[in-house]
UniProtKB/TrEMBL annotation:
InterPro entries: UCP037225, zinc_ribbon_bacterial. Pfam families: Zn_ribbon_21. This is CPXCG motif-containing cysteine-rich protein. It comes from the Bacteria.
Length: 60
């Protein structure tokens, strides 16, 4: 599932992939494809196949 988010460092809109097979609640680290800084990604399944996603800075 592709989701568009805003990088918390550089502010660019980027698309990330959330694997629906990864469980109803997921937390992982992913690097911004624009500025290469690491985010913490939190994805929670709100409905079957629909995820709410939040990204946070690694230095917070």
């Amino acid at each position: 599932m592709d989701i568009e988010i805003e990088c918390p460092y550089c502010g660019e809109l980027v698309t990330i992939f959330v694997d629906p097979g990864g469980g109803a609640s997921q937390t992982y680290v992913e690097d911004c494809p624009v500025c290469c800084r690491p985010w913490t990604v939190h994805a929670v399944e709100e409905e079957p196949g629909g995820f709410a996603v939040a990204v946070g800075r690694q230095d917070d």
